[in-house]
């Protein structure tokens, strides 16, 4: 029975003996790999704690960029910005850019890597938030020319596209890669709950503050996103093309500033 199964899997030209010899060779090579002390229980615990901290931090950066509020209240944003583009039209345009950004991510995520996409996405998000801060500052001061009122649609479309490129989707599944399957269910439920609580807070505060204190609101999002970019740059490891043990080992070791 075993012989026939192996022949079926390997092909008619493969003998059972040769197949099992190959399996034994692979097993020997695997057993010969060095076992790092950090993969012992204490190292695994350290790796798990760091994975949870990284996941919570990424969720914080993602939510406190204000992206959820921008996407949900696009029409309101363009209404108060004095944009030359009609609010409803702007909502449709930004929706198209949102879809486009998500589609591009599918093709780049395994080719470019999670870390690079996160860095590029976060950098552009910071730049767009800074420009929105300046835009509303000059708008409130009455120093904005009518020709510049096309800027909100350009800034927001760029923001949404690059947010969907990395900072939007990647924190959701990099959490699974960092934490690992053995702790995934419980840890992810807490992280997802934390993320949606932050989302609720952002939505409520956006509605309350965007009319009266738009400059301060955008400035807060900008500052938080700057810290988020620095956090990703210095602390978030690359998980692409790494197995669970490699990721766990890198987390278990003493954390240095890295770009791996």
What would you say this structure looks like, in words?
This protein is mainly α and 260 residues long. The chain is built from 12 helices and no strands. It is elongated and about 80 Å long.
List the topology elements.
Blueprint: H1 2-10, H2 16-31, H3 41-63, H4 67-72, H5 74-81, H6 87-112, H7 114-140, H8 151-167, H9 170-179, H10 184-209, H11 214-235, H12 244-252
Secondary-structure class? mainly alpha
Helix content: over 70%
Count of distinct strands: 0
Question: Using only CA atoms, what is the Rg?
Answer: 24 Å
Q: Give the helices and strands as they follow along the chain.
A: HHHHHHHHHHHH
Residue runs with pLDDT of under 50 for 5 or more positions: 29-38, 254-260
Beta fraction of the residues?
A: under 5%
Keywords:
260 residues; 12 helices; mainly alpha; 77% helix
